[in-house]
Design a protein that fits this description.
elongated; alpha+beta; two-stranded antiparallel sheet
Length: about 90
C-alpha cells in the first residue's frame, strides 16, 4: 500500500508508478467522489490528442511495418520521378 501526505492546501501527489499505469499526464482532470470513507479519483475522459504519438509507441514492435512503409515510399517517389520525366 502506498501512502501520501496531504499538504496545507489539501493537495496530494499521485505516485509516479500509479500515474504511469493510468497514463495520467499534467493537465488531466480527475473527478473526486466519496464512497463511504473512501476518496475515489476517476479520470475524466479527455479529448484525444491527435498530436500525442506516444500512445502508439511499441505497437508495431517486432514487425516489418517500418521497412515495408519505407519501401513503398521509395517506389512512389520513383514512380513520381518517372511520371514527371515523361511529361517534360
Amino acid at each position: 500500500m502506498l501512502a501520501v501526505c496531504v499538504s496545507s492546501k489539501g493537495q496530494v501527489v499521485i505516485p509516479r508508478d500509479v500515474r504511469a499505469k493510468l497514463g495520467l499526464r499534467q493537465g488531466d482532470r480527475l473527478e473526486v467522489s466519496l464512497d463511504g470513507e473512501l476518496i475515489v479519483l476517476r479520470r475524466i475522459d479527455r479529448e484525444p490528442d491527435r498530436r500525442d504519438w506516444r500512445r502508439w509507441e511499441g505497437v508495431l514492435a517486432g514487425t516489418t511495418a517500418l521497412q515495408d512503409h519505407l519501401a513503398e515510399h521509395r517506389e512512389e517517389v520513383e514512380r513520381d520521378v518517372c511520371v514527371h520525366a515523361l511529361r517534360r
